[in-house]
């Protein structure tokens, strides 16, 4: 029984080492060095070439080496086998820390102090108590829940919204389209943790942004396609939104010609909010393979109908 491994662009050596230790009875072959396509049972991949997975007739499952699966679902010839997302708590913690950084940055005006220093300008800016700074988390999956708990644990007032009903201690939870406007009202900062699906594509548009209070902040740690960037630039240009911190974009790397680079109100990071560590993530992947071998359902299983 053989595993195909392709962590395209991020290195395979550490993954091969960890998977070999955790699954010693299985052979691991790094793409494209696949001596026998018939032997492949599991594909552990990130940004794998479209169409290639059809070459393995005995493939039982595809396991993503990152939280997202768009790199798989874009493939029109994706085999009809289970697709398993990577839900590593270590990644969720990294993304929660990244989010907390921007909450602190915007709440305490560190972004403004950074512009004052080159001007040798000494001026303090009033900051409310953390309990009076309203943070909203858009999307309450594993990552969103970790983000919400982390920020609430640092004294901030946190609410959350999801398509489906959720219950989290210390978090005021909203769900469904009818509750979205009420969720956005009164927020000082909103963090997007939604997956990119047909239902969420372009969701953060003119209407969404207009429902936020004037002077609010936006943080995106999810996918760039959830945001209408033209709409975002418009509210920033008008001064309605105070600033945005963006970590993911529709096209990556972000093209040099993108107007997002030049805008004073936008803070860009190169899709680094949640690092995937092979040592912890390989355990999650290996356990899912064990589940499949026992005839059990892996977790979290990508739902092709719902798009996440």
UniProtKB/TrEMBL annotation:
Coiled coil: none annotated. Belongs to the D-isomer specific 2-hydroxyacid dehydrogenase family. InterPro entries: D-isomer_DH_CS, D-isomer_DH_CS1, D-isomer_DH_NAD-bd, NAD(P)-bd_dom_sf. The keyword NADP does not apply. This is Glyoxylate/hydroxypyruvate reductase A. Keywords: NAD, Oxidoreductase, Pyruvate. Residues 103-273 form the D-isomer specific 2-hydroxyacid dehydrogenase NAD-binding domain. The keyword Oxidoreductase applies. The lineage of its organism: Bacteria, Pseudomonadati, Pseudomonadota, Alphaproteobacteria, Rhodospirillales.
